[in-house]
Amino acid sequence: MPALQNLTTLSRSTLSRAARNAWAISPLGEGIEKYDGIPTTVVYDQPHRRLLRYDGPPATEGTRPVLLVPPLAVSIRCYDLRPGQSLAGHLVGSGRPAYVIDYGEIGFADRAMGFEEWIDDILPNAIDAVSLMHGNTEVDVVGWSLGGTMSLLTAAAHPGLPIASITAFGTPIDYSKNPAILPFATADRLLGTWLTTLPTAAMGGVPKQLVRTSYRAMAPKRELTKAVFLAKNILDAEALGRTEAVDDFIASMPGYPGRAYHQIHSRLMTRNDLARGRVELSRERTVDLSAIDTRVLFVGSSTDNIGPGPSVRAGVDVVPGATYAAADGLSHLGLVAGPTAPERSWPLLDEFLPAV
């Protein structure tokens, strides 16, 4: 009888926990875990260029500050997803001052913003501000996906900036090595760039709703099996929390401004300018990656559906002295915020960053 009573009690407890978790992850629930992120201090706050410093213990003497550069159409949560999946937390915990630039919401009114806005203004000003706050020391720049692209273009366009190094996680360079780009390239070849980009031009860019849908479509297996995964792991709060964090991250994605998206489509995806080492932003402006004179590390993964390893590895062919490190087994977001990133990809960054 005691054994039967214990089993009954255990079953009731298990069912109760499963019910609580199921309610929490439902549209009416409050979620599995509440994560407000690492506290930050605002350095300056201007439209589409809000510079934040992650709060934490005093920095280790002699370490350089790090500026985290998110991609377009992505919130800064990519660097601080949840406990144990926070690159920002890892940097601060390692004694490094860490900053992030937040672009905020992007709407129709921002349709004229192009790469020039970021590489001539937003990023140089953030790099200079961080450098000034640390006695004019050089800054280690870390970018994920298009954040790496913009960091590289900034360094190439302004070689005099105080940049100690650039680390580019999952940053595609040779778009011909990315199967997901084939439909865009094919449409452009058959219809022409003007007609292909007409819908986004009319909308002033890519609205946030479409960005979120497209991101989910890049990981069809996750989306198709998510319900089964949640059911199988209904008692595993950690697994549910990871899924919830990714869903919240996708739900926070802003949109692409029109001009920037047109440049991405025409210059990067269809004409593959980065792989040639020269990006023609306009008829009057070309940025040459051979002008980069700082240390550069590309980190890629063979299991990344958005920035496949071979596409990222191509960076060593166009950026002088650049190196490549593989973190295979990680997804695109997983490179900076995956549950195994602390073992697979973050150590590559730690090893690369100069100590002084």
Would you kindly provide a written description of the structure presented here, covering whatever features stand out?
This protein is an alpha/beta fold and 356 residues long. Helix content is 44%, strand content 16%. It is built from 16 helices and 12 strands. The protein has helices at residues 2-25, 87-93, 115-133, 146-157, 182-191, 193-196, 198-203, 208-217, 220-232, 237-251, 258-270, 273-276, 309-313, 334-337, 341-344, 346-352, and strands spanning 40-46, 49-54, 66-69, 98-102, 139-144, 163-169, 205-206, 256-257, 278-282, 285-288, 295-300, 323-326. The strands form 3 sheets. An 8-stranded mixed beta sheet has the order 1-2-4-3-5-6-11-12, with helices on both faces. Helix 3 (115-133) crosses helix 4. The radius of gyration is 22 Å and the shape is globular. Residues 1-7 have low confidence and may be disordered.
Helix proportion of residues, in percent? 40-55%
Poorly predicted residue ranges: 1-7
Number of strands: 12
Tell me about the largest β-sheet.
Answer: 8 strands, mixed
Summarize the structure.
This protein is an alpha/beta fold. It is built from 16 helices and twelve strands.
Identify the notable features of this structure and list them briefly.
single chain; 356 residues; alpha/beta; 8-stranded mixed β-sheet; 44% helix; disordered N terminus
SSE topology:
Blueprint: H1 2-25, E1 40-46, E2 49-54, E3 66-69, H2 87-93, E4 98-102, H3 115-133, E5 139-144, H4 146-157, E6 163-169, H5 182-191, H6 193-196, H7 198-203, E7 205-206, H8 208-217, H9 220-232, H10 237-251, E8 256-257, H11 258-270, H12 273-276, E9 278-282, E10 285-288, E11 295-300, H13 309-313, E12 323-326, H14 334-337, H15 341-344, H16 346-352
Parallel strand pairs: 3-4, 3-5, 5-6, 6-11, 11-12
Antiparallel strand pairs: 1-2, 2-4, 7-8, 9-10
